[in-house]
Amino acid sequence: MHCLFLGIAKWIVKRIWVDEGILMLNNLKNIQRKMNQIQVPADLGRIPRKIDCEEGFSNFTADQWRIFFTIYATTSLWEYLSVIDRTILTHFVRVCSVLVGRILTFDLIAEATERLIKIIKLIEEHYGRDKVTQNLHLSLHLQECSYDFGPLYTFWCFSFERMNGILGNCNFFLCRFMIIMIMKCAKKIMKYVNII
Fold this sequence. Notes:
Layout: H1 2-18, H2 25-37, H3 62-77, H4 83-99, H5 106-127, H6 134-139, H7 142-149, H8 158-168, H9 172-195
C-alpha cells in the first residue's frame, strides 16, 4: 500500500502535476471546495482536507491517498488535467481499485500490471525518462507479490516503504552495496528455508 500511495500516488500528484504547474494554487482551492461537497460514508476513513494548504496535498497519509484516488480524484481533478494526464489518472485509479480490493483474480492482477506499464510509458513519453522513479519500477513487482502473498491488504507492502526510505537517502555506490548485501541475505534465507 505504501509503495502504491506514498510512493506513486503522492509522486504523480506532487512531483508531476503540482511541481510542473498543471495544478496551480487556485486549482487546488477549487479542488478542495469540490471535495468538501462530496458526502461519503463515515466508515471510509478520514477525509483529506489539506489539499489547498502549503505546497498542496500537505502531509497525506497512505490511507488518505487511497481515499483521495478511489473516491475524489476523478471528479475533482478531471477538468484541470490534459488528455495524457487524464489517461494516467484513469489507469492509476483503476490500479488502486484493483490492488486494494479484498478479492483478486489472476486477470485483475494482470490488468493492474498492464495499466502500471501504460502509466510508466506515458510518464516517460510525456515528462521524460528522469521522471520514472524506483517506486514506479517497484510497482511492477506487485504482481509477483500478489501471486505469492495474496491481496495487498493482507500485507500492505511495508517492505517497499522501508526500502524506499533507505534507497532514497543513499548515494549510488552505497545503494549498490546494499543491493548486493540484500541479495546475499536472500540467498542465505532461501538456503535455510530449503533445509527446513
